[in-house]
Write a structure and sequence with these properties.
InterPro entries: AAA_16 (IPR041664), Cyt_c-like_dom (IPR009056), P-loop_NTPase (IPR027417)
GO molecular function: electron transfer activity; heme binding; metal ion binding
Structural class: alpha/beta
CATH architecture of the largest domain: 3-Layer(aba) Sandwich
Keywords: Heme, Iron, Metal-binding
Mean pLDDT: 89
Protein name: Cytochrome c domain-containing protein
Low-confidence stretches: none
CATH class of the largest domain: Alpha Beta
Pfam family, one: AAA_16
């Protein structure tokens, strides 16, 4: 009942260890925007399970503490960002509205926001009658052209203007950013570019898989200079130990040095795995201190839970052809592997495997590390596959 460890998707661990640099970077962003200084939007990248969503949520909390307006969306491959962005900015403006001295100014922006939301292509075709719950008439002539790049730019500029009136900022947080459709990525980059030139106090903070910078760069060449990129990786030994020790000390429980050695070897520094192994070791240890023997007893149960929940759930989403492709990847190695080597293992031409590869990329199971190389988005996935029957 007192177990402090919390393996979960986007669930904040009891000790957010090893992320001081990223937190300081975002603190600088908030302070610069508050002082009216130009500042780039921010993008977090990394494998699954390294804590990108946790950091994104922590950034959101930091912005709220500074009385910013905030909104968050999770991108989906099949969905335009028009509706989610409208809903997120609506939430951000609702946070700011009570402090604004000119209610008519808020109503004017809400009219623009409603017009923006109602220009959704699906709604225009009659396939959807969705309308945002904004109790003002839709405006006309602003953010309602139907061209997302024009509309999003105008919407961001107007939202930033409202924030300027209050001397605060607005932050839009986007998780799974690599799943935004290509035309929408282009529109988002263009809108952020306009904001960076005008110095408007609105920033976009995204999180996504390692190939996200390539997705943004393919959309707009200037995106490399548009965002501040932060690569989120596994924890070093000190940070991984702190993530285990600090919560345990609050419950007056200790780990032996050998236990910490065994846990680091098992988890390999990945935050999700640190929590998963720590949780099971705690449950199975009969007393404090938790020892290396306790970890050895706990490891099979932790690995079984990971095999079912973390790895297995993703494996089950793949078709037989996609599973064959992933097994071939795993047999080549754990680092980014050449697509030509995967094709050779399968005895196929690389071009004939493109549908399986592209589908796996869309499902977020693999990513293109660079031209001709592919890798798993989930750490230790190759090891999991090698233990599965082909």
């Amino acid at each position: 009942m007192r177990n402090p460890y919390a393996p979960g998707a986007g669930q904040r661990p009891p000790e957010l260890a090893g992320r001081d640099r990223e937190l300081q970077q975002f603190e600088v962003v908030l302070e610069r925007v508050a002082r009216g200084r130009p500042e780039r939007s921010m993008v977090l990248t990394g494998l699954r399970g390294v804590g990108k969503t946790v950091l994104l949520n922590t950034f959101k909390s930091m912005a709220i503490q500074r009385l910013w307006g905030t909104g968050k969306i999770e991108a989906r491959p099949e969905q335009s960002i028009r509706r989610p962005v409208a809903a997120a900015l609506h939430m951000a403006i609702r946070e700011l509205a009570p402090r604004h001295r000119a209610p008519e100014r808020i109503e004017e922006f809400l009219g623009v926001l409603k017009a923006f939301a109602m220009r959704d292509p699906a709604a225009a075709k009659g396939t959807s009658h969705w309308s945002p719950a904004i109790d003002v008439p839709a405006g006309r002539g602003r953010a309602d052209s139907g061209d997302l790049e024009i509309d999003l730019t105008e919407l961001f500029v107007d939202a930033a203007s409202v924030a300027t009136d209050l001397g605060v900022g607005i932050a839009l947080f986007i998780d799974e950013m690599q799943d935004i459709q290509a035309p929408d990525v282009s529109a988002l980059c263009a809108a952020c570019h306009e904001l960076s030139q005008s110095g408007g106090p609105l920033i976009v903070v995204g999180a996504g898989l390692p190939h996200l910078p390539g997705v943004l760069s393919a959309s707009k060449s200037y995106s490399e200079r548009l965002f501040r990129y932060a690569r989120i990786d596994r924890l070093d030994r000190d940070a991984a130990d702190l993530a285990l020790i600090a919560p345990a000390e609050r419950e007056e429980v200790e780990f032996t040095p050998d236990a910490l050695d065994a846990l680091y070897e098992a988890a390999d520094g990945y935050p999700y795995f640190v929590q998963a192994y720590g949780k099971v070791a705690w449950d199975l240890a009969p007393r404090s201190p938790i020892t290396a023997d306790d970890v050895r007893v706990a490891a099979p149960e932790a690995e079984e839970e990971l095999a079912v929940g973390f790895f297995g759930s993703r494996y089950e989403r793949a078709t037989p052809a996609e599973r064959d492709y992933m097994h071939a990847m795993a047999s080549v190695g754990d680092e980014p592997v050449p697509t030509a080597d995967v094709a050779e293992r399968l005895g196929r031409k690389p071009s004939s495997l493109s549908p399986a590869r592209d589908s796996l990329i869309k499902k977020g199971l693999i990513y293109s590390a660079e031209r001709g190389l592919i890798a798993f988005t989930v750490p230790h996935f190759g090891r999991f596959l090698r233990a599965q029957p082909v």
